[in-house]
UniProtKB/TrEMBL annotation:
Pfam family, one: Glyco_hydro_28
Catalytic activity line of the entry: (1,4-alpha-D-galacturonosyl)n+m + H2O = (1,4-alpha-D-galacturonosyl)n + (1,4-alpha-D-galacturonosyl)m
One of the protein's GO biological processes: fruit dehiscence
Family membership noted in the UniProt record: Belongs to the glycosyl hydrolase 28 family.
EC number(s) stated in the UniProt entry for this protein: 3.2.1.15
Organism of origin: Arabis nemorensis
Name this polypeptide is given: endo-polygalacturonase
One example GO MF annotation: polygalacturonase activity
Main location: secreted
Catalytic residues (positions): H290
Keywords, comma-separated and alphabetical: Cell wall, Cell wall biogenesis/degradation, Glycosidase, Hydrolase, Secreted, Signal
The keyword Cell division is annotated on this UniProt entry: no
Length: 436
């Protein structure tokens, strides 16, 4: 009887999904509609969200009611902050990953686990939840890193959930690495690598919730080549002068939502790079840091594609940039169908900026090609500028910015500088562009 009810529930939910999908299909507008201020990718995002919810419901309906718990303590992890617990974590992972059904891999609270670089790989038989309720502490010995670019990596694990509960912390102990950066020490070369603290690679249906990540060696959380991702209620922190410590880095990832999170770092709070599509960012507090950035794109004359990005609800305080799109000269491709809306900025440098002449290298040359920036909406954005320029569109003369909409923008304390940009004002806009 219970099985019949289960199947009936799944069928009814499927029917509701089909109705929602058909409604979304009828409402699609080809490209951007200035009267409705939306893109057709909005409907695609809704379809994918509905599909993901259905898949999660079906999996939950067919699961066993009581998950199996595998604790790292059962495999010899000491959690005293001094003993190397890497081997215990690897063995606990192998057990949890190879088990059937729902499995919780538990990192108990109240303990600090010292770890070398570690790569936890799938695919897994289990539907796995990693419960990081204690603290993970990175080794500060360079010899403990087989790969200088990564510390903790989850690779190829589908339907993975990482939950920090109320106490879970990932600490990169980055100070040792920051001292070797040319941005901290001008006598150092800029070729020195440093690890990303937490990397999720090549995974589908990923959830990261309630986690605290701090003082990464370089990037704090990197989401690479993933799809159907939800990140929520995370706190990401590092000093304002910590080099290259991007909070959440998204690259080559589709259908991702980041929400209800606080990020304060020494680099971009959130950075979105090539191959990313249907990115939704909601309810973000950012600062210190370099703001919310799309890019950099097109470095080393590469092709780059980013589309369907929506930042809806953010508060930025004291950041070096606000909402930014940055592309290198000489690149190609597109950054398109982007919405920044409902954003408050307090004492922010460069609150709104598109920079198609971005260069963080010792030398960049003038190039004819550029990543095309088009269909970008700035709506309901207000606050104060800490720089003389509040709105800057520095676009390419060969590939001008197209379809830029300013709708109810009010940023006090700076003027607008707009070059090679097709800008449309809707509602009250301050400051206003004078196109050159």
């Amino acid at each position: 009887m219970a099985r019949c009810c289960q199947l009936l529930t799944i069928f009814l939910l499927w029917a509701l999904l089909m109705l929602s999908w058909c409604e979304a299909s009828r409402n699609i507008v080809n490209g951007y509609d200035h009267s409705y201020l939306r893109f057709k990718s909005d409907s695609l995002i809704k379809r994918r969200d509905d599909t993901t919810r259905l898949k999660r419901f079906v999996r939950a309906s067919l699961r066993s009611p009581t998950p199996t718990t595998v604790s790292v303590s059962d495999f010899g992890a000491k959690g005293d902050g001094n003993t190397d617990d890497t081997e215990a974590f690897v063995n606990a992972w192998k057990k949890a990953c190879s088990s059937n059904g729902d499995v919780n891999l538990l990192v108990p609270k109240g303990n600090t686990y010292l770890l070398k670089s570690i790569r936890l790989t799938g695919p897994c038989k289990s539907i796995l939840t990693v419960q990081i309720f204690g603290a993970l502490s990175a080794s500060q010995k360079r010899s403990d890193y087989k790969d200088f670019s990564k510390w903790l990596t989850f690779d190829g694990v589908n339907s993975l959930t990482v939950d920090g509960g109320t106490t879970g912390t990932v600490d990169g102990n980055g100070e040792t690495w920051w001292q070797s950066s040319c941005k901290r020490n001008k006598a150092k070369t800029c070729t020195t690598k440093a690890p990303t603290a937490l990397t999720f690679y090549n995974s589908k249906n990923l959830r990261v919730n309630n986690l605290r990540v701090k003082n990464a060696q370089q990037i704090q959380i990197s989401i690479e080549k993933c799809s159907n991702v939800q990140v929520s209620n995370v706190v990401v922190t590092a000093p304002a002068d910590s080099p290259n410590t991007d909070g959440i880095h998204i690259t080559n990832t589709q259908n991702i939502q980041v929400s209800k999170s606080f990020i304060g770092t020494g680099d971009d709070c959130i950075s979105i790079e090539s191959g990313s599509q249907n990115v939704k960012i909601n309810d973000i507090t950012c600062g210190p840091g370099h703001g919310i950035s799309i890019g950099s794109l097109g470095d080393d004359n590469s092709k780059a594609f980013v589309s369907g990005v929506t930042v809806d609800g953010a508060k930025l305080s004291g950041t070096d940039n606000g909402v930014r799109i940055k592309t290198y000269p000489g690149g190609s491709g597109t950054a398109s169908n982007i919405i920044f809306q409902n954003i408050q900025m307090d004492n922010v440098k460069n609150p709104i900026i598109i920079d198609q002449h971005y260069c963080d290298k010792s030398k960049c040359t003038e190039e004819k090609s550029a990543v095309q920036v088009k269909n970008v909406v700035y709506r309901n954005i207000s606050g104060t500028s800490a720089s003389d320029i509040a709105i800057k569109f520095d676009c390419s003369s060969d590939y001008p910015c197209q379809g830029i909409v300013l709708d109810k923008v009010n940023i006090r304390g700076g003027k607008a500088s707009c070059s090679n940009a097709n800008v449309i004002d809707k509602g009250a806009v301050l400051p206003q562009c004078k196109i050159t």
